[in-house]
Amino acid sequence: MSAAAPAPLPPAARRFLAALFPGDASVFSPEETCVFGTDASRRQALPAAVVRPETENQIRELLRFAHAERLPIHCRGRGTNTVGDCVPAPSGIVISTARYADILEISEDDFVAVCRPGVVTGDLQAALAKKRLFYPPDPASVRFSTLGGNAATCAGGMRALKYGVTRDFILGIRAILPGGEVIVTGGRTHKNVAGLDLTRLLVGSEGALAFFSEITVKLLPLPEATATALCAHADADSALAAAGDIFRAGMLPAAMEFVDRTCLEAVTALRPLPWERQAGAQQAGAALLVRLDGSEGALAADLPRLERVLAGRGPLFIQTARGNAEQEALWEVRTTLNQASFRVAPDKLSDDVTVPRGAIRTAVARIQAIAARERLPILVFGHVGDGNLHVNIMHHAAAPDERGRALAAREAILDLTLALGGTLSGEHGVGLSKLPFLDRQIGPGERGLMRRIKAVFDPHGIMNPGKAF
């Protein structure tokens, strides 16, 4: 998708930004700003300007000016968002948090950390691990995405099954509103029911309400050990049935991931699958990955128990691992999927639909039927334990017929999701790409209420306009 030309920035606005953000802290030419005009959705729009604040006062002054001049503001972390939330459309000023990325405090007594929004989530987790502390949310982009971006979309990840999503671990936010006003929501206590929960309102608001200046997160003790089981099955339904068996056995894994046959075929193009090294191995139709965590003693008992449960569905292959390197080798079946997907086709329509847990077997079977009907490879994988499926419709966008079939498949999958009582997005957000479908899930009364709430925070609609709701 080619980048739209930016709206011209008034000369007075350019002078203001250059003075407030001196040197390379502000950039204006298309050659310098173009990299800030896209995200993982592959949508593009050129910003009118990009600024890189280092102090809260700079952000307050910017939002005061933008509010008065009615200039759109787009907050940006590392651009890993897949629904166009970081794309500056309509054209406006992008606030990059790359230089606003400090871990301000780690409290081993309060079990909290206080961070600027530009901190990479994986870097925070690494710093906490040295103190035997744990921040569980782990989106697939954890090594690159920022805490602010994760908070803006309420990112989930593999460990959401046991621990919850980003919203469950944010205790407080220091936020700057259009006009420059600072508000402080929540705090550093692990319980707080005083007043309306503005923190939970802000988390997941996709940059449409305020700029997050400081984020206070809840921490847990770091689990002593982890273990992984990889289980291959003849078909998707057997793998999904095994996932249900784990719950019925009274076990709650830290993570439980599903990948279908099309995913496995894609990964095979990069590296052999573990069971393919065995003589006479059958072709697998799906695989299940399960991670346990806890004390060494607990895992010594739980891992054999998990193996017994998995064996009950007659899998083609089971392998377990306790060492970090051995576990990561098993998880490559899941973690290499993004790069492997482009071995299937050059273009992708990506969604993260979520259905009730009890409907997941039906959802996967019907999505596979849609793939057969539209004659397209569709990768189905994801966080099966909480019903969150990632659906990648692979195609050649340059072929009009194939692009049309991909769009038809996407629409059918979204309609199927809603018919099963699901949601259009479990963790990626709405952004630009899902906005045309949102009225199928959320009624005009509810969306009107959301817009009125936005108007309280952002009267002139300058914060990430035209997205989310």
Distance between the termini: 23 Å
- Number-wise, the strands total 18
Question: Which percent band covers the strand fraction?
Answer: 15-25%
Which runs of at least 5 residues are low in confidence (pLDDT < 50)?
A: none
Counting DSSP H or I runs of 4 or more residues, the number of helices is: 15
Described by strand count, sense and barrel closure, the largest sheet is:
7 strands, antiparallel
Shape: globular
Measured as a percent range, the helix fraction is 25-40%
Q: What do the pLDDT scores average to? A: 94
Q: Give, in spatial order, the strands making up the sheet with the most strands.
A: 15-12-14-13-17-18-16
Q: Give me the Rg, rounded.
A: 23 Å
- The chain-level structural class is alpha+beta
What report would you give on this structure?
The protein is of the alpha+beta class and 469 residues long. It is built from 15 helices and 18 strands. It has helices spanning 11-20, 30-33, 56-69, 121-129, 147-153, 160-163, 198-202, 236-248, 261-268, 296-311, 324-335, 337-341, 360-374, 400-419, 444-457; strands at 26-27, 49-51, 73-76, 93-96, 103-107, 112-115, 133-134, 170-176, 182-186, 211-218, 220-221, 225-233, 255-260, 286-294, 317-321, 347-354, 378-383, 388-395. The strands form 4 sheets. It has a 7-stranded antiparallel beta sheet with strand order 15-12-14-13-17-18-16, sandwiched between helices. Strands 5-6-10-8-9 form a 5-stranded antiparallel beta sheet. A 4-stranded mixed beta sheet has the order 1-2-4-3, covered by helices on one side. The radius of gyration is 23 Å and the shape is globular.
